[in-house]
Amino acid sequence: MPTLIIHSPTLNDAQHTLLNSIGELQPKNNHFRVECAQIDAEKLFELRQESELDINLLPEGFNGSEVKLLISDMDSTLIAIECIDEIADFMNIKPEVSAITEAAMRGELDFEGSLTQRVALLKGLDTGLLQRVYDERLVLNPGANTLIESLKKQSIKFALVSGGFTFFTDRLKQKLGLDYTRANVLAETDGKLNGSVIGSIVGAQAKADFLNELCAELNITPNQVIAAGDGANDLLMMNAAGLSVAYHAKPAVQAKASTSLNHRGLDAILDFLD
Ligand SMILES: [Mg+2]
């Protein structure tokens, strides 16, 4: 029987009545579950609209108790900003750069090409400004700390993968105690950015490859992985995982992900593990 996850610790009367009509509501840790008859995408959409809650169907064959790895995108998923847009802001070229970022995240531009174009615009930037972006602009999305702490207690690994830069993933790994990271390396000479990245670009395929490499290293199957992202360049990685979470994501990403969160913070991902 399909399982519906209702990502809310409490329900008001209207929500309770609506959702109890689908099947018996089972209270769990911070969420509810309903074992229900087959439910189609249209009905799910209606329930989400009417209840104004995050509601997801567990993918077939996925078993939350067997999850060993969460792999997450960084910009606009683990953290609330797009680092490259904030770097550009310090150079007074944010509108140009964020227009390219937006188009790439919607899937209208090929990610590798768009990154090359944006990094070229950063040429000459004093690398000290990257530290200022980290210190002054970078904030975690809601629920990030709760999610990470709980995963540690459950011995589930956390991998951070980004089409952004190692400058930021390295610092977050250190600060949050993450297990694995992969991102692009900005080339620099004498404290200034060269306008290029070193080696091949971490784009959509590299993110999916990272997931598969980690499965081999941990001796687990992709079905034991949850992948979270918000952009078109996360879809190959998300598609490879047993459960994918579109986190406050573009419509094109939500349409292809197995689950979506649009109201709750990152800690709602824990509801899938019960
Ligand atoms: Mg992103």
TrEMBL record:
<dbReference type="Pfam" id="PF00702">
    <property type="entry name" value="Hydrolase"/>
</dbReference>
<feature type="active site" description="Nucleophile">
    <location>
        <position position="73"/>
    </location>
</feature>
<keyword id="KW-0718">Serine biosynthesis</keyword>
<keyword id="KW-0378">Hydrolase</keyword>
<dbReference type="GO" id="GO:0000287">
    <property type="term" value="F:magnesium ion binding"/>
</dbReference>
<dbReference type="GO" id="GO:0006564">
    <property type="term" value="P:L-serine biosynthetic process"/>
</dbReference>
<keyword id="KW-0479">Metal-binding</keyword>
<comment type="similarity">
    <text>Belongs to the HAD-like hydrolase superfamily. SerB family.</text>
</comment>
<keyword id="KW-0028">Amino-acid biosynthesis</keyword>
<keyword id="KW-0460">Magnesium</keyword>
<dbReference type="GO" id="GO:0005737">
    <property type="term" value="C:cytoplasm"/>
</dbReference>
<protein>
    <recommendedName>
        <fullName>Phosphoserine phosphatase</fullName>
        <ecNumber>3.1.3.3</ecNumber>
    </recommendedName>
</protein>
<dbReference type="GO" id="GO:0036424">
    <property type="term" value="F:L-phosphoserine phosphatase activity"/>
</dbReference>
<dbReference type="InterPro" id="IPR004469">
    <property type="entry name" value="PSP"/>
</dbReference>
<feature type="active site" description="Proton donor">
    <location>
        <position position="75"/>
    </location>
</feature>
<dbReference type="InterPro" id="IPR036412">
    <property type="entry name" value="HAD-like_sf"/>
</dbReference>
<dbReference type="InterPro" id="IPR050582">
    <property type="entry name" value="HAD-like_SerB"/>
</dbReference>
<dbReference type="InterPro" id="IPR023214">
    <property type="entry name" value="HAD_sf"/>
</dbReference>
<comment type="pathway">
    <text>Amino-acid biosynthesis; L-serine biosynthesis; L-serine from 3-phospho-D-glycerate: step 3/3.</text>
</comment>
